[in-house]
Amino acid sequence: MTKKYEVVGIGNAIVDILTHVEDDFLAEHKLAKGSMQLFDEADAAKLYATLGQAIECSGGSAANTVAGLASLGHRTAFIGKVRDDQLGRIFRHDITALGTDFPAAHAEDGPATALCQVLVTPDAERTMCTYLGACVNLTEADIDDETIKGASITYLEGYLWDPEDAKNAFRKAIALAHEAGRKTSLSLSDPFCVDRHREEFLSLTRDDIDILFANEEELLMLFDTRDLATALAAAREHCEIAAVTRGAKGCVIAANGESIEVSGRQVSNLVDTTGAGDLFAAGFLHGYVTGEDLATCGSIGNLIASEVITHMGARPDIDLKAFLSQNMGTSEEDM
C-alpha cells in the first residue's frame, strides 16, 4: 500500500488554554506549581472564569508532535475524540489548518471536548489543570484502518493508556501498522502514567513498540532502577530504538547495542517549557523518516525542542522547516 502519511498520531484531543499567572494565583487556588491536576467540568469552568487573556489552540501531547511534524513539511494525520461543541470545532479547525488530516468524527453526545488550562508563572514553570472530557472515550471504531496502514509510523500517546476502550483502540492500531509492515512508536508521557501502567508498558515496549520516547525519570521508573545505564541497557533489549530526553543535558539514544549521547542546546530566553518533549519527538521522527543517523535525529529533536520553549504554548509559531534549515549544524553559541 502506498504511504499517504509519514506519521499518524493517536492521543488525547485537548484544547489548550494558555495564560500567564503569578505565584499568588496558584496559592489562592491551591494549585501545586508544576503539577498536572484533573478537574471535573464544573470546576474547570470556574477556574476558566478567573483567568485573564489567554491563547486557545488544539493541544494534547501526540497532537503537538504531529503539529511539529506538519510544520517540518511532513504529511500527517491525527486520531482523537472531540465533542460536537465550540471547543471541538476549535480543535478541528486548528489542527487541520496546519495541514494535518483529522479523520475522526465529532461525538454527538457525552462529555464536552477536553481542555487543559496551562498556567505559566514568571519562572516559565507550567501548572496544568485538565478536564479530560470526550478525549478519553476513544474506541476501536475511531481507528481508521486506511489511515494507519498508510502511515510510515503510528505514534501513540501514553497519557491515553487508561480507559479499556482506548487501550483496545491502541492495540488495533498497532496490529494494523505491523500487518502493513509499518513502525510503531510510544511516548511514555508522564511518570504517573508509568507508575500506573508499568507492567503493561513493559509488555508494549517488548512486543509491540519499535521506537520509544521517554524522559529520564520515566525510563528509570519503567525499568525499576535509579541507574540510567541499567535502564538504557534494558531499553535496548525491549525495543529497536529508545530516545530519552534529559532536559538541558540533551538526550541519549539507545539502539543497536549502544547508547548515543547528544548534547543539549542552551536557551537564554526560556518562556514556557510546555511541549518540549512533544516537539523533541517531532524533530527526532523528522530525522528518522528522512533517513538521518540516530545521533542526527537526536540533535534535530534537541533543536526543535529548544525553539518551542522560547514562547508560550506547545506548538511552533514559526516555520520549523526554515528554522531547521537555518540552524541545523550550528552550535548553541551560533544561534
UniProtKB/TrEMBL annotation:
Residues 58-317 form the Carbohydrate kinase PfkB domain. This is Adenosine kinase. InterPro entries: Carb_kinase_PfkB-like (IPR052700), Carboh/pur_kinase_PfkB_CS (IPR002173), PfkB_dom (IPR011611), Ribokinase-like (IPR029056). Keywords: Kinase, Transferase. Gene3D superfamilies: 3.40.1190.20. One of its GO terms (molecular function) is kinase activity. Pfam families: PfkB (PF00294).
